[in-house]
Amino acid sequence: GAGVSQTPSNKVTEKGKYVELRCDPISGHTALYWYRQSLGQGPEFLIYFQGTGAADDSGLPNDRFFAVRPEGSVSTLKIQRTERGDSAVYLCASSLTGPGALGANVLTFGAGSRLTVL
Amino acid sequence: QQPVQSPQAVILREGEDAVINCSSSKALYSVHWYRQKHGEAPVFLMILLKGGEQKGHEKISASFNEKKQQSSLYLTASQLSYSGTYFCGTDRAGGSYIPTFGRGTSLIVHP
Questions:
Q1: A interface with B, Cβ–Cβ below 8 Å
Q2: CA B30 to chain centre
Q3: Which 8-state DSSP code applies to residue B76?
Q4: Domain with A47 in it: what CATH number?
Q5: pLDDT for the residue A109
Q6: Domain containing residue A38
């Protein structure tokens, strides 16, 4: 697509529930990133995919968070047993070739999925 | 470890200049600058890959001093459209080029 698309744009859930957030990157972009942004903070890195594999998942806060990208395009961020502290805007970004390629790592962000855990 | 940005907020009149600073406690391979307007996605401004390099985007330019582990963003003759929150992003790990972002600097430009 023309840009990075994220769904849903807003999600309200109850504590303890399971949530899935979807990201559809720019067509042809091999690298995909998930960040989360709390109010008044900068985006916090969660995970980076190169193709289908998670090349760096060191930002995932705990084992309740998991992400997949089975066909190297669309990615889903999954959060189990949600907690109030998970409330944030979850941003997805993609880039053409990924980090390590000099000058190529320009991230294009989606508009985000705002998650509210009651 | 996230970079430190200063100042936290800047209020300007149209046509005035501003400087936003970004410093890191570890060696830098790259510095990214993004601007985010309220309720919108961050938008890429520029990436700096070499020490001392300056790049420009409209009337916005930036410098990168590897030795001092710092970058500065210069906004010249600011326009109303420059309002937003500016984030610098520094390498998560040496040479990874995946940005770890600072807390941001809020820039408000008044007519």
A1: 4, 33, 35, 40-45, 48, 56, 58, 91, 99-103, 105-112
A2: 12
A3: -
A4: 2.60.40.10
A5: 96
A6: 5-117
Give the model confidence (pLDDT) of B30-42 as tens digits.
888 999 999 899 9
Of the candidates B17, B19, B22, B18, the residue with the CA atom closest to the CA atom of residue B5: B22
Per cent of chain A over pLDDT 90 is 77
The residues spanned by each domain of chain B are 4-110
Secondary structure letter of residue A70 according to DSSP: T
- CATH architecture of the domain with residue range B4-110: Sandwich (2.60)
Instruction: Look up residue B74 and give its amino acid.
Output: Y
Residue A51: how many other CB atoms lie within 10 Å? 14
In chain A, the number of structural domains is 1
Spatial distance between the Cα atoms of A36 and A42, rounded to a whole number of angstroms: 8
Kindly determine whether residue A56 and residue B95, on different chains, have CB atoms separated by under 8 Å. Answer: no
Query: B43 CB contacts (<8 Å, ≥6 apart)?
Result: A109, B34, B35, B36, B37
Among B44, B87, B103, beta carbon nearest to A108: B44
Mean pLDDT of B12-22: 96
CB contact under 8 Å between B92 and A45, yes or no, is yes
Query: Quick one: what percent of chain B has pLDDT higher than 90?
Result: 58
CB-CB neighbors (< 8 A) of B102 in chain A: 42
Quick check: A105 pLDDT over 80? no
Paired tokens of A12: 């309200």
| Residues on chain A touching B100 (C-beta within 8 angstroms) | 45
pLDDT digits (tens, 9 = 90+) for A8-35: 999 999 999 999 999 999 998 989 999 9
Q: What is the mean pLDDT of residues B72-90?
A: 94
